[in-house]
Amino acid sequence: MRVALADDAVLLREGLARLLGEAGFEVVGLAGDADDLLALVERTRPDVAIVDIRMPPTHTDEGLRAAKVIRERWPAIGILVLSQHVNARYALELLGSGTDGVGYLLKERVSDLDELSSSVNRVGEGGSVLDPAVVEELVGRRRQADNPLEHLTEREREVLALMAEGRSNRAIAERLFVTEHTVEKHVKSIFGSLRLPPSADDHRRVLAVIAYLNSQ
Amino acid sequence: MRRKLVTVAGLGILAGAGAVWLAAHQPPDRPTEPGPVLTLLVGASLLGCGLASWRARPENRLGPVMVLTAFAWFASQLSETPEAWVYTLGSVVQYVWVIGLIYLLLSFPSGRLPGRLDRWLLGGVCSLFVIQLLAMLEGNKAGVRCPTCPSNLLHVITDNREAENLLLLERLLGSVLVATIIVVLARRWWRASPAQRRAVAPVIVAGCATLAALVWTQVLDLFGDPLSALPATVWFYTTAAVPIAVVFVFVQRRLARGMVAGLVVELGQPRPSADLREALARTLGDPSLELAYWFPAERCYVDGEGRMVKLPNIQSGRSSTFVERDGQPIAVLLHDPVLEHNAELVRSVCAAASLALENERLQAELRARLSELQASRARLVEATDAERRRIERDLHDGTQQRLVSIAMSLGLLESKLPDQEAVTRPLVREAREALAVALEELRELTHGINPPLLTERGLAAALDELCRRAALPARLNMNLHADRRLSDQVESAAYFVASEALTNAAKHSHGSEVRVSASHEGEMLTVEVVDDGIGGAADAGGSGLRGLADRVEALGGRLTVSSPPGRGTSLRAEIPCA
Known about the structure:
The structure holds two protein chains of two kinds. Chain A is an alpha/beta fold. Chain A is built from ten helices and six strands, in the order βαβαβαβαβαβααααα. A six-stranded parallel sheet of chain A has the order 2-1-3-4-5-6, with helices on both faces. In chain A, α6 (132-140) packs across α7 and α8 crosses α9. The longest helix of chain A is centred in the C-terminal third of the chain and has 14 residues, at 180-193. Chain B is α+β, with helices and mostly antiparallel strands. Chain B has 16 helices and ten strands. In chain B, the strands form two sheets. Chain B has a five-stranded antiparallel sheet. The chains are: A alpha/beta, B alpha+beta. The interface between A and B is large, with 33 and 43 residues.
């Protein structure tokens, strides 16, 4: 899988390139800011672009804006946005326009090589990735009384969070050391409790869950 | 001085008596010449008013000019004698008094000709005098139209036709000049400030009237009936009015000085500064008067609101009069330059008002210090905010990056270990997990110092995020302009008020829900956080809130806390924002 990389901090850019190389990805180019990244993507058409959210010149959300541009111009290219902050709003903005091939991860997650390569692969294959910290914030929010989330069991909430992170039933089953069949049962029950239409498609499922969590 | 004036008065009375006698005995065929009554009226007016002005304001030339004009007026009556040499002398000086009159009008009220144009005009009037002389050199009888006049002793050649032409030229030129002077005076009136108008109105009116009558006589002389007595009579009467108008203006100023006494009484009562300015403006007759007070700390003058005031220079068309008390500067009066001609009045007003001005000065100084204090508090908040942002940026760009980089190296190291390795692998994993905790703590810390969303997306987004993350369920109600950012200081003050209030509610209120509202109406941002807890917060949150109150007050706002026992706690910040 071919990957383009954008981060203004040389230390992290080079380190990440090495990690990706180690994990078997082909790094097609490195960029220091959003403009460089767009030029690089234009030139190399990678499978996935990994983008730091905060880059020059304003050091605010350039990466996010560049990601949106890439999504519009080259919808087939997967985008993994890296952030140093847990910012649910930015994550939802990014995933709001469709979860296919989009991911939002905290920067430090890349230190787990297995996590990194599975995330990049998922995004590259058109799946979605949402950082557990963001999901935790969404699921863990204190809500008004009489919220359907309050009626979910502990296990169901775990499954809901993993779904929101963008994981498939099989991945969830592996995580929780249960069978895929059990996960399917949980999912069905969750969708029933939240009054969401059932969906077999992993991608649409993520969108539905995120939209639900955000609306509460 | 007094003696000199008495002597001049005596001489004037003698000259006047002579002139009246001559006018009474003039031949009956000269209806355009002034009779004894008019001779006396104009002469007495000029002499009396001239002497009065001279005595009251010796530094002003107008008094002497009027007296000299009176003598010239009397001398012009010499042309009414049958004696040839006296007649000749009288004819030569016949119109000299008109030069005096025009000087008087052009130079009023300062006694000096204000501009180059005025000097040219006066020069032009003098040149008429020369033309008249030339006519006398050529014609036997300057008054060709005066058959009974005695012989003109000055004539060298007798060419009455030529003389008549010269006289025609004189009339023509004179009409144009005088009309120009009327225009100049009218324009001066038009451009004058209200204070100046008030000062010169009677003189300008009388002056324009007499000059208009003069033009009338000249035009009639050119085209009409040269012997019509009416315009000349009007001219002489209006001429008599001019010195009276001058004295009237001077007397009015003297009356204004009498108002100083009224001012002293008026200033006896305590009053706000607007009234003081009003009272002084009324007494001085200058509605445009401004006051500025000495501010010793900055060594400058400030207005009633404590703002610095620039003193006028020569070009600005304003004058300043400084007020001192015991050798210390107190205030400065910024006024119309016309008041400089009445320096005595200004001085007495300043003396009368100095105590009131000193009071106002102290108040203005206080206000200036307050506004300085306010500005320094605002600067302090601004500096704190900038520092917060800098620290957050430094942590983000420095420490956080380095820690992430170390985490990457550990990840790389872990991937290099052989799968069966059982000693190092758990240690590396442990280090990676410890690092993750450190990074999380650092993230919380930087978020607390300066929430990135506030800087990047503004108050509405940051408050929304804050309420979603709140420990107690928080209901947010916003009425903000989504696309309009407020200043950094206002936004962060509002944000931290809400943040601190939410934290306090979670810690102390024992409530189940918080309502947060933020609205921006007009020039005021209001943030309110209300919980449904037990209330009765004694010191309403302690030092955290005190710091927030300082922050809000530094921006000119107000933080109020209400916490009645059993009825929840509400915290409300009102922050002005342009």
